[in-house]
Amino acid sequence: MQLTAQIRGRQPRRRMARARQVGAERHLIAAAEVAGNYLLVWSCEPRLYVCSLSSFPFFKGYSEKALQKFEISPSGSRIHWPKGDVDLDLSAIRYHSLAKSGVSGRGL
Description:
By secondary structure, the protein is an alpha+beta fold. Helix content is about 25%, strand content about 25%. The strands form two sheets. A three-stranded antiparallel beta sheet has the order 1-2-3. It has a three-stranded antiparallel beta sheet with strand order 4-5-6. The longest helix has 13 residues, at about 10-20.
């Protein structure tokens, strides 16, 4: 399965610009998407982090529609899913990233 994620739109670019202004590129989220069983997240560096949704037990039982329904805070500090009131910040995403096990976002 090939996963590709792109940074599109004004909001992610604004978050990246603000993060650069305050030196927080490594700590803030620019963009995210759910693709199949994966969560793809761009930091403001920009760096792509790919996580298996099964790494997050609180997503068990979520429908595809519920997984797709999330918001990134205006500052980029977290991703929020209204169902279950779930919040993830970049440190949690980094912790669960497949890259630490040698798997990258390309070619999954």
